[in-house]
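Practice problem 4.
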């Protein structure tokens, strides 16, 4: 059996690794010459970590992960702690810890484990055709690839999605802009072993430790889409949006590198069906695009990969049957994740300011129990328990 994998990002490489593990021949085709993720880092929650462990990357992942032992929310003006608690109860309950990692390093780890030489870069898919005997992908350089099945892990702007759905999808603007990047850890901004988030005015400033003594930072500001902002004004823009915020926040803005800071208008896609058609399966952002608000976009792609490989390995009624089983196992899960993230997004970013103010009040009473219970529920919905 041969699988064509479209997309060499997190979902594509995890899928290729998972299939390879079961002896299925794979070839990965990536549109760009060099992958440049729009996010500087990503929090891999235990459901995602378990998938990477399962795919044989337990040790290299640990080396990339930052020490996120505590979690805290601070109020925005003085930077005082609203709540702070240990992640240990979560880790004990689900059996694995979360690892925030730099995206470039995660990508390198995935490629090293799969084999860089097995990925063909600069292959942008333009069309997909399938018959009773196989599937063909056509690329913009005039070349083609043939296989028994095709896994479309071609991201939120997926070209293959329309082949599966039969109609084009539109992304939905989530209402906020996210600036993110990496910065050297400075403990006068936040503790090195903690995920720290400053909240107020429907905005947030967040810091997560990754390896190499660095913080992943992100700033979220509710804004209309399409604003013209560029690197040359990036620091001044953030200073303006966060005027009156705590000294730690001002210090962070002063210390970031505008040249390597990403600015993204956050979108998601209304959950849709089907996720498969015949011999073609959507996977990762191509199948479900979420806001980053519960940190589950990458994790969901890892889960998809494990489930897809498992159904192909464990069933014998053919590829089309196995892909339908993949869809059955994933559809509710990924819809729940997208909608849960959207709900958190709206509360965090002041969609209804009274609701957001109520959340700030609740954070003062929070012992960690409620927040960790919500995370546990999300994590335990994954395929590897
Ligand atoms: N939660 C996460 C978030 N990760 O676990 C993450 C968030 N990355 O709310 N936001 C973001 O950009």
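Answer key:
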């Amino acid at each position: 059996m041969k699988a064509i994998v479209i997309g060499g990002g997190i979902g594509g490489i995890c899928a290729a690794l998972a299939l390879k593990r079961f002896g299925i021949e794979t070839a990965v085709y990536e549109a760009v010459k060099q992958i440049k993720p729009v996010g500087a880092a990503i929090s891999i929650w235990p459901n995602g970590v378990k998938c990477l462990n399962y795919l044989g990357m337990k040790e290299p992942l640990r080396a990339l992960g930052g020490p996120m032992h505590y979690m805290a929310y601070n109020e925005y003006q003085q930077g005082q702690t609203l709540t702070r608690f240990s992640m240990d109860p979560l880790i004990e309950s689900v059996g694995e810890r979360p690892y925030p990692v730099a995206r470039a390093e995660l990508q390198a780890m995935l490629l090293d484990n799969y084999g860089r030489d097995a990925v063909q870069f600069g292959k942008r898919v333009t069309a997909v055709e399938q018959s009773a005997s196989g599937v063909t992908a056509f690329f913009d350089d005039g070349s083609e690839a043939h296989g028994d099945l095709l896994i479309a892990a071609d991201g939120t702007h997926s070209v293959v999605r329309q082949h599966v759905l039969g109609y084009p999808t539109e992304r939905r603007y989530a209402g906020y802009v996210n600036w993110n990047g990496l910065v050297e850890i400075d403990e006068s901004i936040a503790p090195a072993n903690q995920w720290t988030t400053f909240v107020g005015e429907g905005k947030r400033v967040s810091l997560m430790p990754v390896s190499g003594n660095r913080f992943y930072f992100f700033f979220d500001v509710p804004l209309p889409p399409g604003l013209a902002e560029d690197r040359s004004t990036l620091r001044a823009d953030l200073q303006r949006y966060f005027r009156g915020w705590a000294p730690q926040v001002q210090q962070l803005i002063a210390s970031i590198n505008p040249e390597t800071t990403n600015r993204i208008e956050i979108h998601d896609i209304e959950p849709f069906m089907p996720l498969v058609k015949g011999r073609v399966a959507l996977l990762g952002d191509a199948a479900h695009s979420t806001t980053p608000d519960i940190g589950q976009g990458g994790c969901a792609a890892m889960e998809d990969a494990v489930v897809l490989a498992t159904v192909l390995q464990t069933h014998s009624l053919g590829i089309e049957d196995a892909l339908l089983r993949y869809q059955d196992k994933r559809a509710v899960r990924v819809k729940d994740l997208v909608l849960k993230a959207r709900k958190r997004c709206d509360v965090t970013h002041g969609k209804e300011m009274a609701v957001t103010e109520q959340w700030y009040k609740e954070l003062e009473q929070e012992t960690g129990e409620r927040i960790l219970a919500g995370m546990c529920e999300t994590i335990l919905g994954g395929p590897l328990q």
